[in-house]
Write a structure and sequence with these properties.
The protein is an alpha+beta fold and 305 residues long. The protein has eight helices and twelve strands. It has helices at residues 11-43, 46-53, 55-80, 82-86, 197-205, 216-224, 264-277, 291-303; strands spanning 94-101, 104-110, 116-120, 122-126, 131-136, 142-145, 153-155, 161-165, 171-177, 189-195, 254-255, 260-261. Strands 3-2-1-5-8 form a five-stranded mixed sheet, with no helix packed on it. The protein has a five-stranded mixed sheet with strand order 4-10-9-6-7, with helices on one face. It has a two-stranded antiparallel ribbon with strand order 11-12. The protein is elongated, with a radius of gyration of 26 Å. Bound molecules: heme C and copper (II) ion.
């Protein structure tokens, strides 16, 4: 999976990568320059050593050079990041709300007509369309970081932070919470799937598949076992808001915020004993199910795509 700042796939990440390369490059040149001067001051001839120790040298290299270089770098970085700093005059072409929960991601696609589609733990983005991510947190400070797509931005309780992203090409990336937020913080990741804009629109507006005859039993057990008090599934008797929306959980690449690949077996493992897979997460373990019952639930969840 691509979680590299060195392979940017979007305008924001490209600017950050450019600035970083320039800083590393400049720092390397200065480092070797200083080392050369240090060597000359130890092994150089008398006249070289005298030149290095002169007052002019100290004023030029010790005061003037750093002041000029750092001032130039400051203005260069402000200019480079101007789009990130100035705010945005034009409205974004799309809006997606991302709330960081302990320890998963609540994602809401806001349609142009105001319709809201709830999802979780997987962020789909349209290629070539500037999208505004509206970042909030209901509990503690988290931070959103998708290294290939943009910089880090904190998600702070009581505040709304906004980040514009635009993506050059389709692909699969990985994002991660970048601010320690308690126990399972390390297991708070998400997949980012960049789709062609038409595919993206079809997916956002698409119906929830699922509930074939094979999975009717699992759906019944799911609804009777109280899962719906914490989880929502569109079209089922489940509208809880405590945990991730499961309407299309079977279509995600991973479950439990990037912790396990999605499969029937892994769903069963997580439902029965999620606490040993993601210690400290806020879903109680359901160890009392008969094996065939929990397997039926997992089959039902797999069918939700
Ligand atoms: C008390 C609230 C609560 C109940 C009841 C509950 N869950 Fe959860 N569930 C959660 C929370 C919170 C998470 C997020 C865990 C995490 O990843 O940190 C979660 C995560 C999950 C996930 C992973 C979702 C994803 O997006 O990857 C599945 C699948 C799941 N629960 C299934 C179930 C099933 C099936 C039941 C009923 C047997 C159930 N849950 C009952 C709170 C609950
Ligand atoms: Cu975190």
């Amino acid at each position: 999976m691509n979680q590299s700042v060195l392979e940017p796939n979007g305008a924001e990440a490209e600017r950050i990568a450019d600035l970083a390369l320039m800083l590393f490059g400049g720092a390397a040149i200065i480092f070797f320059g200083v080392m050369a001067l240090a060597a000359a001051s130890v092994w150089g001839g008398v006249s070289v050593r005298r030149a290095i120790a002169s007052e002019r040298m100290i004023v030029a290299a010790g005061i003037a050079f750093p002041v000029i270089t750092l001032t130039a770098l400051l203005f260069y970085s402000l200019w480079l990041m101007r789009a990130n700093i100035q705010g945005n005059a034009t409205p974004p072409a799309g809006r997606i709300e991302v709330a960081a929960e302990q320890w998963w991601w609540r994602i809401t696609y806001v349609e142009p007509d105001g319709r809201r589609i709830s999802e979780a733990n997987e962020l789909r983005l349209p290629v070539g369309r500037e999208v505004e991510l509206v970042l909030t947190s209901p509990d503690v400070i988290h931070s959103l970081w998708i290294p290939a797509i943009g910089g880090k931005l904190d998600m702070i309780p009581g505040r709304t932070n906004r980040m514009r992203v635009s993506i050059d090409g389709p692909g699969i990336y990985r994002g991660q919470c970048a601010e320690y937020c308690g126990g399972p913080h390390a297991l708070m990741a998400f997949d980012v799937i960049a789709l062609e804009a038409t595919e993206f629109d079809a997916w956002v507006r698409g119906d929830v598949a699922g509930g074939s005859t094979e999975t009717v039993r699992g759906r019944g057990i799911f609804e009777e076992s109280g899962c719906g008090s914490c989880h929502a599934v569109r079209g089922a008797n489940a509208s809880g808001l405590v945990g991730p929306d499961l309407s299309r959980v079977g279509g995600r690449r991973t479950i439990a915020a990037g912790t396990l690949p999605t499969s029937r077996e892994n769903l069963t493992r997580f439902i029965v004993d999620g606490q040993s897979i993601k210690p400290g997460n806020l879903m109680p373990p359901f160890g009392l199910f008969a094996a065939e019952d929990v397997d039926a639930i997992s089959a039902y969840l797999m069918s939700l795509q």
